[in-house]
User: Fold these one by one.
Assistant:
Number 1:
Amino acid sequence: MAETRKKKVSAPERPGLPRVLPWHASALALVRNAWAGARMPHALLLHGPEGIGKRELARWIAGAVLCESSAGGPLDVCGQCASCGLLEAGSHPDFHLVTPEEDKQQISIEQVRAAADVLARTSYRQGGWRVVILDPAHQMTVAAANSVLKTLEEPGAASLLVLVTPRPSALPATVRSRCQKLAVRRPSEHEAIEWLRAEAGTAVEAQVLQFAGGGPLRGLGHAEGRFPAPDRPIRASAGGA
C-alpha cells in the first residue's frame, strides 16, 4: 500500500514590528504631539509619494497606539509588552490591515464592514484601542467608501482608522474632510541613498533610486533583486507604499 504523504504546511510569515524611517520624523512628531495632548484623531489620512514607506509609518502608529507602554505615557512601540508581541506575530485582535484581496484591484465593501466590526467591538484589554489601516484607500469601491464614511461619521471611543494613499484627491471629499491629513515627505536623494546603502549593506548607485521613481523602499527592492530594474526610470507615482 502506497504511503500517503501529508502536504507540508509552512507557518505564516511573522510580519515583525514596524520601524521608524528617518524621513518620517516630522510626520511622527505631529502624531506624538496629538497623543501627548489627548487630541488623537479618530481618523488619519496618510498621503505622499509611493515607495516612501507610508504603510510602515501607518503600522508604527498603529503599534504605538496599541502598545501598553503608551497608555499614560509618550507614544512609542516598546517591543516588550504583550500587545507588541501580538502585533509582531500578526495576531493582534485589535489590529486589522485591509488591502485588496489577491487577484483583485479594489477593496470591497465586505472587507470594510469586517474592519468596521474591529473598530466597534471591545478591546481585548481594558481601555485598549482598536486600529484599522486601509491601504491603498483610493482603491476602495464606491460602496466600500460609503461604508467607510458611515464609520467616520460615528467613530467609536479609542478607535483609529488610518487611510493610506498616494492619491488623496481620488477619495470622496466627504471622506477626506472627516480625516486629519498627515503628509509624508519624500526623502532627499542624499538621505535616500545613505539609507539604501545602510540597508543593502553594499554600495548603491543613484541610478537605482532614479529607477525607483525616488522611492527608497522600492529602490531597496531593486538593490536586493526583488524588483527587476526597468529599461527606463519609472514615474514617481509608481512603486510601493
Note: The two ends are 53 Å apart (CA to CA).
Number 2:
Amino acid sequence: MSDEESSVLSSLRLASHAPLDAAQRAGRMKCSRCGASRMFYCYSCCALVGLAPRDVPSVELPVKIDIIKHPNETDGKSTAMQAKLLAPRDVNIYTYPCIPELDQSKENIVLVFPGPDAMTVEELWEHFSADGKPRVKRLKVTDADPETHSCPIQRVVFIDSTWNQTTRIITDERLQALPNVELKSRRTCFWRHQKGCPDTYLATVEAVYYFLKDLHSHYFSEYTGEYDNLLFFFSFLHKLINKAKQAAGKV
C-alpha cells in the first residue's frame, strides 16, 4: 500500500469492520438465493452472504445514482454492487443495453464522464440556471440540521466498464443529451489496475464516492464523512488483498 493510499483510506470515517473480519474468518459461504460460493456478498444477486443487514452501514445520498454496466464487465471484478448494497434506496444498476428512463424535463441529470465539453461539479449551478432560477432539490443534510440546502441536480449516471469498453455505451443516442461532468483528478486505490491506463482511472465505487464528496462540499456544507461508508467494503478488501500480497512477498 502506498503512503497516499494509506492516507486516503485510513482517514475515512467508517462503520466497524469487525463483522467483515468475522465473516472473513468463517470463509466463503453459499448465497441463499443462487447457491454460489461467495465472500461478504453475492455480486450476482445483490445479497449479503455471511452478514446480516445490521452488520453493514446504510448510506443516504442527496441524489439518485444510476450505474450502467457494460455487459462484458465481469460482475466479480466490478465495485458497482458495493454502492448498491450500501445505498440501496438511492443506487440502481442496469446492464447495457438496458438503461434507466432519463427524463430531463422532470429532473436535472448529469453523466459523469470526461471530455472536452465536460464541466466541473462547481459549474453545475450555472449550467442548470434558467433566468437565474435553477431547478433545485432542497434537502436537509441531516435530521439534526434544520437548515435546507440546494442541489442543482437530482440524478447522476455512471458507466461501469473498463476504459476500452466505454465507447459502446457513451455513444448511445439515449445518453447524448446528458451534460457531462468530469471529476477532479485522484489516484485510484483499486487493486485491479487497468493495463495501459493511468492511475487516475477510478473504480466505479470510488468515482461515486468522490463525486458525492465534491457535490456535498460545494453545495451543502463542509464534508465530514457523510458518504465515507460507500467505501466500507472497498477499504476492507483493499486491506485484505494488500496483506495477502505482503505475505506472498509481492509488495
Note: Residues 130 and 136 are 11 Å apart (CA to CA).
